[in-house]
Amino acid sequence: MRGKLALGLIGAAAVGGLFLAERMRPLRRQTRAPAPRVARNVAMGALCQAMIAAYETPLTDAIAQRNQRKSRGLQGGIPGIAGALAGFLAMDYGFYLWHVATHKVPFLWRFHRVHHVDADMDMSTAIRFHFIDMLASLPWRMMQVRVSGVSPRELAIWRAFFFGSILFHHSNLRLPNGLDRRLATFLTTPRMHGIHHSQRRSEMDSNWSSGIAIWDHLHGTFRDTPPQTAICIGVDDAEAEQDIALNAALEAPFRTQPARQSGSSGVYSHQ
Ligand SMILES: [Zn+2]
Description:
This protein is mainly alpha-helical. The chain is 60% helix and 0% strand.
């Protein structure tokens, strides 16, 4: 119990520190008033968390318990630390593949678009998702846990790593010169993910990793250009601006979808 409290306090301190750091060392110039953006994103994150607590957590925990009892999946089939590592890598690679699918499958893009519509990026963007997205991704998430074979303990470690990773790489934190580039050889970084949030399709279709960055390097989808000052964050369709608002964002997946720009030029709507 004390250990959990200590971990909770460390986590809260890390989140608070990152929140302050991204304001003291901004990576990109923000174009919108921060308070309403953050409030809106936190509200969307709270809806997602309710869905996760109601469905994803109990279902994936049950699968992880069966993994442990039956020694199944990648982790169950490989003894010791190598098995734990294999399970971790399988979970992470599953997220890479899922992220590609959310951009390439029109039904999934309806929901993922709500995340990308945010016209600025900071830690709060990491939790700006449509709550139905948490249901749409649930079958894949359950399969990830089953195939990876992670135990309840490894799944808990994975969740903490993944949540920390998405907060970090969505943040607007400008790391010291060279550090971001060195980190990007193995971890998804703020510069790397900023390129993925570009309106330009050629830039958005890169840097799909959500945890470790090795998958982008292996698949040839890693990009470290352009510089952040040349990126316009968001989505370049006719309804992106209106869908930033909370109600519009929640309705957006259920409307006829606006045409996406298919070229590499993008439409820079707020520069
Ligand atoms: Zn994306």
